[in-house]
Design a protein that fits this description.
This protein is of the alpha/beta class. It folds into two domains: 101 residues, no CATH class; 130 residues, Trna Endonuclease, Chain: A, domain 1 (3-Layer(aba) Sandwich), CATH 3.40.1350.10. Helices cover 46% and strands 13% of the residues. The chain is built from 14 helices and eight strands. The strands form two sheets. It has a five-stranded mixed sheet with strand order 4-5-6-7-8. Strand 7, helix 13 and strand 8 form a beta-alpha-beta unit. The protein is elongated.
Length: 300
């Protein structure tokens, strides 16, 4: 926030386009092109852009900056006075000296609890968007761990049905009935099932599913599956497990030339289940909204 305020202070007699801040700030913080391209987990915007935007928002709420027009900022008299004190940093603690910023943070502002003076504190160095996404990722990681444990506790027959359900949701296997007939019928030469790659059945994918809890899938296991594919003249396979693959197994699968085997370990399996709604239900939905600029465009 301090570099933003200084930049605006150096141009006190003019409005500053927020995007014009980016090159100066990137240079000051020695940010690389990779740093500047880093996106928030949702992909909604860049981390850098989000932080610059929220720096401006916080200081506008504290009265240090004003917004003469959309996408622009201008330093206020209060902002100039703040710079005159030569602060070493501007952060939440600094801004809370201003009643307008405290009012912005007070929980009662949105809950109607007028006597509640507690404030929304953000994790150090995070904008509200980052805090939301960080919290979401933490909840998701906890859910994935719990989900994987439940899958490990289920019966082999239930696991086979789960694999069918997941692959169909991902667009493979045609109908669920067709996929269900294919999986679990082969049981020969290291193959647990065969599933259509698409609804028309133009190609097939061979399946191996291991509900293991106490050991990793090793290279010989993947080699056996690759040999089974070759024996059937097949070129595509998916090896799923509730466990994990050794480095040797992963390297072997990556080095295959005449066939393609995709390895899905327990952690990725849980993530795919969450993405495709298998074994999970929505507990709550939060919408993050923004201003619709088109709505306010008069006579354009």
């Amino acid at each position: 926030m301090l570099p933003v305020l200084r930049y605006a202070g150096e141009r006190a007699k003019e409005s500053v386009i927020i995007r014009d801040l980016f090159p100066a700030l990137a240079k000051q913080f020695a940010l690389s092109e990779e740093d500047l391209r880093e996106m928030l987990p949702s992909g909604a915007t860049t981390t850098f852009g989000s932080r610059v935007s929220w720096a401006c928002t916080y200081m506008k709420k504290a009265g240090l900056l004003s917004a003469p027009k959309r996408g622009c900022i201008s330093i206020t008299q209060r902002g100039l006075e703040a710079l005159a004190t030569k602060p070493s940093a501007i952060n939440g603690a600094f801004l809370r000296q201003y009643p307008e910023f405290r009012a912005f943070q007070i929980k009662g502002k949105s809950t109607g609890q007028e006597n509640d003076t507690s404030t929304h504190e953000l994790p150090l160095g995070k904008t509200p968007h980052e805090a939301i996404e960080s919290g979401y990722q933490s909840l998701r990681a906890e859910l994935a761990a719990d989900l994987l444990q439940r899958v490990k506790d289920c019966t082999p027959m239930f696991f086979e049905r789960l694999v069918v359900e997941l692959l169909v949701k991902m667009g493979y296997g045609g109908s669920r009935a067709d996929a269900g007939k294919a999986l679990g019928r082969s049981g020969d030469g290291g193959i647990d099932g065969i599933i259509k790659e698409d609804r028309l059945g133009l190609d097939v994918i061979f399946i191996q599913a291991k509900r293991w809890t106490d050991k990793a899938v090793s290279r010989p296991d993947v080699q056996q599956f690759a040999g089974a594919l070759a024996g059937h003249g097949a070129g595509k396979g998916i090896f799923l497990t509730t466990s994990y693959f050794t480095k040797e197994a992963t390297a072997y699968a990556a080095g295959l030339r005449n066939s393609k085997i995709v390895l899905i370990g327990g952690e990725e399996l849980a993530e795919l289940m969450i993405d495709h709604g298998i074994g999970v239900a929505t507990a709550a939905t939060y919408e993050v909204k923004r201003i619709d600029s088109d709505y306010f465009a008069e006579g354009e």
